[in-house]
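Lab notebook, bench 4. Still working through the backlog of constructs that have no structural model yet. Next entry is a single chain of 636 residues. Request: give me the structure tokens for it.
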Amino acid sequence: MQLLKSLITRLSNSLLASVPGHRGGGDSAGTASPVRLVSRNPHAAAASDQDGRRVSGSSMGQSESVDEAVRRSQSWFLSRQHPHEGYWVAELEADTTLTSEYLMLRRFLGLVDPERERKAVRYLRVMQLPEGGWPIYYGGPCEISASVKAYFALKLSGVSAEEPFMLRAKEAIRARGGVVAANVFTKITLALFDQYDWRGVPSMPPEIILFPKRFYFSVYALSYWSRVVLIPLLIIFTHRPVCRIPREQGIDELFVQPREQVAFNKVPPFKKDAAWFTWRNFFITLDRGLKLYDRMPIRALRNAAVRKAAEWMMAHVQGSGGLGAIYPAMANSVVAMRCLGYGVDHPSVVKALREIEDLEVYDTVKDGREAAETLHLQPCFSPVWDTALLINALVEAGLPSQHPALHKAATWLKSRQATAVGDWKISSPQAEPGGWYFQFENELYPDVDDSAVVLMALAKLRSNDPQMQQTVARGYRWVMAMQSSDGGWGAYDKDNNRMVFNHIPFADHRALLDPSTADVTGRCLELLGTLGYDRTHPAAGPALAFLRREQEADGSWFGRWGVNYIYGTWSVLAGLQAIGEDMTSPYVRRAVAWLESKQNPDGGWGESCLSYAESSTAGQGESTPSQTAWALIALL
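Model written out:
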């Protein structure tokens, strides 16, 4: 009881800090689990001033305080719904790498915009750590790849290497191994400007696109995001275009060892393991053979491969809001189109650039005493996810399901249901279209997580409209058809789990695949429970077995799509509760005990992205409203 009391106090304080008139940033809107935060008998609203702030000195109990916070939060979100379409969308935050890459892309294309450049440079400077580097998450340390990209983008934009902040950046990068320690994607980007040798980049012959769709090493065995990033790269790797830049804008100073002396077989990603045979060593050796082939390819085969890659890419940019509707693939597609001879004024290039420019976010920062505008990029849009989460949250917080705002949002979600056959058909041939995607447009790539949250939102509105009921039925069938043979669910494909791919040199980020995960599987169980099913449903038994296998020794679950073990554990426990699992089972009690042990002294929960690299920090971090809410939902 004391745990829940302190937790609710923390959460209500966070809610009050998140609405207009209060300082402090709110987190995500909430989640779609059956928790009622507003009592069934509403209390009278507290006295407020003309701006809606609570009048100082007003007396309010804890329950009244929570109710007031929820009502004000509801009002704030309702005022920010798109007035005509009915969706909600917030910025999808990312680190500085996208902004750095955007500056490089415009330079590569010869489309430098001085005003954009100034604002992006200002943003990169604001985001720099005092020690000199750039992080990839809030509160994180200097990360080598993000720092190399930011440094190079600043130099390309005319910033002198002798500026004090650039000198700090150089030292931070060199202290972490310099350019050779950066990841593969950074080295590919540098190679486009002749700042890294193509010999140090893994070979990816375009001929791999000619493999049969069901072949073990087919491009369809990769995750959706890897596929849409890789296929344009196959074209780029074949042409190896270079944008020549003045010597003073180069980054030779970031090499710890002189650039011409780098032995690529002794630096990542080609440094072998000590053991005689590992899959990593096998693929490094194979890469050497592929590089030999690249020098003397079978010309007819190569031409056919490039042609097929181009056809695939151009077919997949249709109706997508950009290739894959994510920035890295969209940027690669523009470079690939230029390699194929498309001019910057070609309609396809113009469209792709406009879709990238739509991702720009303008903000203001203090520059001395003046407010100055900055520019950064978000990786994509998230309206389907945001809208579905908000419908769930608003309904659970007491907004009547017949509210016009919810009806408008549901109608918009209905219009976003995928009706086309996408790449998922390769791994799940029995499935028919019916899922939802994350963005405004991404018809070929619906995902299970979005689909489950949308379906829960629509189900909670209890519509009697036959068309809406058919929409839910189609979505339910698609989600069920995407269950993998291990009992779990991945995000975009079924059985996308050929782990050997994570050992190829190209996969130094170890995120090429989309295997089943505990968080998405928990969401699917929660969906089943929301639709009225219990653990006797045919999909539930295999899913429960999968979750038992995936549970960590300490009782938690890993979260791939949210940070991290708190997110994963909440997702699973919410699903288990919804499906009717015995919540007194030992494995469930271990999870509950783990969550309780991670509560912070201030009553909340928090976890840093550091836990992805160091599992010993799981469930540890400064309290945040979203992570506290996840824990509360899991414990109730």
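Notes after review: Confidence is low (pLDDT under 50) at residues 1-59. The longest strand covers residues 360-367. Flag for follow-up if needed.
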